[in-house]
Structure formats: structure tokens, C-alpha cells
Specification:
By secondary structure, the protein is mostly helical. The chain is 66% helix and 0% strand. The chain has 23 helices and no strands. The radius of gyration is 28 Å and the shape is globular. It starts with a helix and ends with a helix. The relative contact order is 0.05.
Length: 412
Amino acid sequence: MVLDAVRADRSCPEAVRLLRLTRSADPVVRIGAFELLLSLAHDGPWPEAAHAALLRVGDLDERVRCLAARLLVRAGDPDLALAVLGQLTEPVVRTVLAEGLRDGVAHLRDDPLAAVRFLAHLAALRTAPPASRPDLDAALLADAREAALHLADAGERWGRLLCGLDRERHAYGLAALLLADPATRDIGAGLARAACHAFRAAPAELLPLLVRHRGREVSPAVADALTTASISEQAMREHGALLAAIGFTRPVRGARCGSAPVHDAASAASLLSAKPIGVGRLREAPEVFGALLDAGPLTFRQAAQLYNLTFRWPGRTQAECAPLWLRHAGPTVLPRLLDLMAPYLDDYTVGEFYLAGLARMGGQALPLLPAVTAMIERRKRIPANDSTDDGEMWLDEKLLKAALRARRAMVL
């Protein structure tokens, strides 16, 4: 493949042809060439690609100009990109260059373009001592409206930085100020959305403001912020009526479909007899072993299967089988099981199942109550990895809900 060849050797004939395509007379071809080059420019400087980008930062097509600016930063020397930023006057490309340079523009706080100044203030704020923050806050507020003309995600950027600096209350106050002014409402909505993604208390704090200041026609930015805030169970408990009053429909996250088969002791024994002793997964484990344990003790072979399911690999099956092994083997195995489960309670991929396992253990799982309580009392969301920030927020909310269920079951 062409991409594999270029990755292996940036001087190969395929790379030369790809670079040549950036000079095509057809803008669609130029766009495609720069998109491919961007996807390949991850492993250190690439002078030839940077030179191709330099030739096209003044292209007649805006999309080509922006792609070239991004490639220039990614493949070239930062000093070269800074020099180009200083020479150009076109605001869109200058903004793209400043975005790519990140902290490298911190000294450009007097730039003539508001978007560049805004990015420079953000870069400076990232490492500024607390005493310098008020001046930078004021500068950001002064430039926000004009900067948003060329920086569509100004509010989100600002919000993410404030959250990273753990300035939760300042983020809420600033969101309220920006939302109250129609000229900066979308910036405030973006900042509010970033706060909701970072802090568990943010949706309940900010949802009423988003409803109150939504305007006659809800902008996409405000609609997105309302959608994000509505993911929070706490916000919906406290303010769901406000959303209902404006006709807002909360999005529903896809639920698992289907139900587990119902097993009696005979069908459960038959299913296990067809599985090897070293079975590694069994999606129906709670139903299968539950039916067998209801009927009486496990056979030696069934107990060996349950042991393997419980202790061999971490994951959903282990989480579901741990309470079953406790039921089979008795309280003496409890410390070992809790040690097995504790590291995975806040794992966004399987924590929900481990917490559900603790809930099934009930009061026997009390030694892990402090860990569960610490999960519930977190200010910041549990880190997760999803394709979207909203998706990561859903994962944290799911873990929080499971932790609350587990705590209720443990203290009853």
C-alpha cells in the first residue's frame, strides 16, 4: 500500500508522488494529498512535507490553506511556523497555526488578531502562578467574543483549561457571566459543557443557567450543552422539570438488549457438562451457577469450573462469579475475593460488573465500603476512554450509579 510505503521510507517514490499532488491544479486533489500527509506526519520532522505546506499556506482554497497550516506545524520546525504566523495576515490560517503551536504562542499576547491573543492567554494561563491569573482571566474575557469569530471552540478550550487547573468554582462563575450575555452565550455554553465533562457537580449547577439563558432560538452550542448536562442523574433529579417545561428530550443511551436464559438445575448442569473444566468465559454464569447452588452443592467438576471462571482472568466473568464462589466456598474466601475485586472497581470497562458483584455480596463486602464511598465522593469524573467527551461522561455516570447501588446493598 502507498501509506505503508511512505511510513517505511519518506523518500520513496510514493512519497515523492504524494508531495507532488499538493501542487495539483485541482483543489480536491490538493485537499486529499494534505489529508494523507497529515495522517502520516507523526514521527518527527519531515522537511519535505513542511516545505510543501509552506508553499500552500496562501492557497486560493481555504480548506487547503488550513490543512497546509496544520501540516506546517506538525512536520516542520516550530520556529518556521512562528515566523509564518508573524508574516501572514489571513485570520483563519493564522488561527490554525496558533492552535497547532499550543504553548509556543504564549508570548503573542499583544498580537493584532483576537483569536491568536486568546490562544496566547490560554497558553500563559496554563503555567501562570496564581497571582498572575486574574490579569489573564480578564484578558481572556475581553478577547473572547472577537476570538470566537475564528475559534469556534473557544469556550470548550477555556473550560478544559480551567478544569485542568482545578478551578471549578471559577468555571461556574465565568459560565454564568458568559451565558447571561447573548453576544457570548455560545462561548459560555461551550465552557459549561467542558465543566460538565470534568466535574460531577457541574451539570446540576449549570443546567438551570442553560435553561434560563437559552434564548428564543436555541443555538447548537446551547443545545449541545443541555444534552451534556442532562446526562447527569443528579442534574435530572434536581432540574428535570425545567427541561420538561421547555420541551427538551433527554437522549437515551443504548441499553443492553435481550435477557439471560432461565435455567433450572438440570439445564445448568447440562450446559456445564459441555464446557471444559478450564472454561474462561460464561456469559450466563450467574444464572447457571445460581440455579445449581439453589439446588444444592456443586459437583467437584462444577466447582472447578467456577474456580477457573473466578480466579483465572479479570473481567466481567470474574466479577459475576466472585459472589458465586463466596456462596459456594463460604466466608473464609472473602478476603481473597475482595483483594481480587478491589483494583477494578473504578475501571471504566468492567467496574460496573465488579460493583454489581459487591452489591450481590451485600454486607459481606463491607471491607470495601471506603473504596466505594471514595468513588462516590469524587469531585472529578473517573478517567475513561470513549470516542466522545459525552461518552466518557456516560461511563462515569454509569460507574457512579453502580457504586451507589453497591453502597446501599452493603450497608443495609
